[in-house]
Structures are given as structure tokens and as C-alpha cells.
Amino acid sequence: MSAFIQISIAVAVAIGVLLIWNIMLEFRLRRLTRGSDGKNLERHLGTIARDYQDLEQFKSSVHAELTQLDARVKTSVRGVGIVRFNPFAGNGDSKPSFAAAFVAEDGTGIVISTLHARSSVSIFSKNIVDFKAEQMLTEEESAALEKARKSLHT
């Protein structure tokens, strides 16, 4: 066999391989654009890009709203503690009086307490800042405040 025939066979095989590869690519392209033209595919890709941008905008707006809600939740009352007690020892088992503490995560809130006597009821409130009262707390009010503080972390 001459060198010319060997080279011709090699070129023919290479052309055959390239032709098969080209047919396969054409088949894949037709399957990709089936039922539409190339412009329709471009339009579809453009729609996907716009949808992605819309999704990114939605994601950033949801993130901003969640940040705002998180800030609002931290300042809302979430911790509650109640202690019932009888201010007049020896007058039975009844515990009509109570101290209730309502606090936010940042430590602000209020303590409300009542003293029930036979013929009257007294109600007191004390502001809470950094989990500390501006006025002196009774033992029951301190216990209610501690319960409220612990309930924040449950």
C-alpha cells in the first residue's frame, strides 16, 4: 500500500468521525430547540434571567423584612413570670395577691403587683431596665422578674 492510500484512508476516517460527531450535535440541538426556533430559545433564556433577577430582589426584600421583624421581636414582651403569695401570714392558705413581670429580650419591661386585703386591693407597677427595677423590688417581685427572665430562654 502506498503512502497516498494510507493518508487517504486516515483522512476518510477522520472525516467520518467528524461527520458522526456533527450529526450527534445536530440531533442534540434539535432536541433542545424542539418545537421552536432559535429565537424562541433566546427569549426563554431571557425570561429565566429576568426571573432570577426578580428572585434576587424578592430575597433581599425578605431579608430586610426579617431583619426588621427580628428587631421588633427583641423589643416585644416575651418573658412572663408570675408569683402568687399571701401578704398576711396566718390568715389561711389563700394566695390572692400576686406579682407579675413582663420583659422583652433587651431587659425592658414592667413588674405589676397586687396586695389583696379584706376590704381593699392595692396595685403597684415598677419599670424594668436591663432586668433591674428603678425602685426597690419586694421578694415576690424579684422572684417574678427572675421567672420572666428565665422564660426568655426556653
Description:
With 154 residues, this protein is an alpha+beta fold. Among the domains are: 31 residues; 75 residues, no CATH class. The chain starts with a helix and ends with a helix. Strand 2 and strand 3 form a beta hairpin. It is built from three helices and five strands. It has a five-stranded antiparallel β-sheet. The model has no long low-confidence stretch (mean pLDDT 87).
Distance between the termini: 90 Å
Shape, principal axes of CA atoms: rod-shaped
Classify the beta-strand content into a percent band. Answer: 15-25%
Regions with little confidence, pLDDT below 50 for 5+ residues: none
Total DSSP helices: 3
Structural class: alpha+beta
Largest sheet: 5 strands, antiparallel
Q: What is the string of SSEs from the N terminus onward?
A: HHEEEEEH
Could you give the count of β-strands? 5
Summarize the structure.
With 154 residues, the chain is of the alpha+beta class. 52% of the residues lie in helices and 23% in strands.
Secondary structure layout:
Layout: H1 3-32, H2 38-74, E1 77-85, E2 97-104, E3 109-116, E4 121-129, E5 132-133, H3 139-151
Antiparallel strand pairs: 1-2, 2-3, 3-4, 4-5
Q: What brief labels describe this structure?
A:
single chain, 154 residues, alpha+beta, 5-stranded antiparallel β-sheet, 3 helices, 52% helix, rod-shaped
